[in-house]
Amino acid sequence: MRKAPKAESHLAMVRRARRINRELAEVYPYAHPELDFRNPFELLVATVLSAQTTDLRVNQTTPALFAAYPTPEDMAAAVPEEMEEIIRPTGFFRAKTKSLLGLSAALRDEFGGEVPGRLEDLVKLPGVGRKTANVVLGNAFGVPGITVDTHFGRLVRRWKWTDEEDPVKVEAVVAGIFPKSEWTMLSHRVVFHGRRICHARKPACGACPIAPLCPSYGEGETDPEKAGKLLKYEMGGYPGQRLSPPADYPGKPAPALGAG
Length: 260
Prior knowledge:
Elements: H1 10-27, H2 40-49, H3 55-68, H4 72-76, H5 80-87, H6 93-110, H7 119-122, H8 130-140, H9 150-158, H10 167-175, H11 183-196, H12 224-228
Helix pairs in contact: 2-3, 2-8, 5-6, 9-11
C-alpha cells in the first residue's frame, strides 16, 4: 500500500517558490511590462484600458489615443464620444472613457498634471485599483509591487503558494514569500510564463522548464511535441504583444492595428 505524499512544510514551499523565481529569471531574462508606454501617464492610461482585453489590443489602440490626448489636461478636455470611438477596440469603451476622463481631471486638478508616485494617491483615481497602481509604481517609478492579474493568480495557485482567490490576499501572501526587491520582476516573470506556457485551459506541461517544481504538473499536455505546439509569442516563434518592445526582447514586434 502506497503512503500518501507528505504534506509540504511552509519552509519547503518558500524554498520551492524562490527556486521557481530563479528558474523563471533564466527563462525570461528579458521579462518586461507588455504595454507600450513612454511616461507614467501613458502607462497609467494603458493599464486602465487593459482590463478585460489583451495588451496587444491596447498597444494597437494607444498610438491614436496619445496622439489626440498627449497630456492629462488634453485628455480631461476630450469630447467623450470622440474618445469612445478611439478606444472602442479595447471593449467596455464607455466605462473606460468615463474612467480616463475622471482620472485625467483628477491628475490635472489635484496633482498638477503629474501621475503621483504613491499607492495611496493612485488608488483614489477613478478606475485605478491596487493592480493598476502596482503596475505604475513598479514600472514607471521603480517602487516594488506585486501585480496580481488573472495569470498571476492562476499560477501561484497551481504552484500551491496559496489557495487564496482574492487578489489583495494573494498579494499579501506572495509578498511574505519574496524580498521586496524581487516583487516587480517576479510579477513580470510569472505573467510571462502564464501567457506563454502555463495557459488557463491547456497548459503546455511537456514544454515547461519548471515542471519538476510544479505540484500541478499533468493538468495540461505532457507530451513534449504536442506541448511545444501550444507555446505562444516568442516561445512559439510568434510576435509578442508590444509594437515597440525593449531592445533585448527576442521576439518579433506585434503588428499595428489593421496590419494583421
